[in-house]
Design brief:
By secondary structure, the chain is α/β, with parallel strands linked by helices. It has a single domain (2-135), classed as Response regulator (Rossmann fold, 3-Layer(aba) Sandwich), CATH 3.40.50.2300. The chain is built from 4 helices and 4 strands; from the N terminus they run E-H-E-H-E-H-E-H. The protein has a 4-stranded parallel beta sheet. The radius of gyration is 14 Å and the shape is globular. The chain starts with a strand and ends with a helix.
């Protein structure tokens, strides 16, 4: 099964989703992430995932146009802007939308910002675990 996870910048939510799904599903799923306006993996996303025991430091931010000709079984959008901008993908590509707030938009000290990333990470993990159970 092939899954693409999308958010606007492919820097936090979709990156954490990619790492979590790869960790949770193992070899059962080929997982990718991308964004409409890719940037780079947010260091707070990497830290939040590291605290969970998952290393996403080798992941790279990709433009969703790279995958426009790729057939996916599922395309999961994790922010409202990505859901609105999501193009049509060939093949079965069932779309799921899970709206998560942008943790990079949180202002405050280091601890407050990291906590916002951890909250989104934990929410993504709950959604992914529940979704994976529906596939068995």
């Amino acid at each position: 099964m092939k899954v693409l996870i999308l958010c606007t910048a492919n820097s936090a939510r979709s990156q954490m989703g990619e790492g979590l799904l790869r960790h949770l599903a193992g070899d059962r799923v080929e997982v990718y992430s991308a964004g409409a306006k890719p940037s780079s993996v947010n260091p707070y996303a990497a830290r939040a995932m590291h605290e969970r025991g998952i290393d996403i430091s080798a992941q790279r931010s990709e433009n969703l146009t790279r995958y426009l000709e790729t057939e996916f079984d599922y395309v999961i959008t994790v922010c409202d802007a990505a859901a609105d901008a999501c193009p049509h993908f060939p093949g079965p590509a069932r779309r799921l939308h899970w709206s998560f707030p942008d943790p990079a938009a949180v202002e405050g000290d280091d601890a407050a910002i990291l906590e916002s990333f951890i909250a989104v990470r934990d929410g993504l993990e709950l959604k992914l675990r529940a979704w994976l159970k529906t596939l068995n």
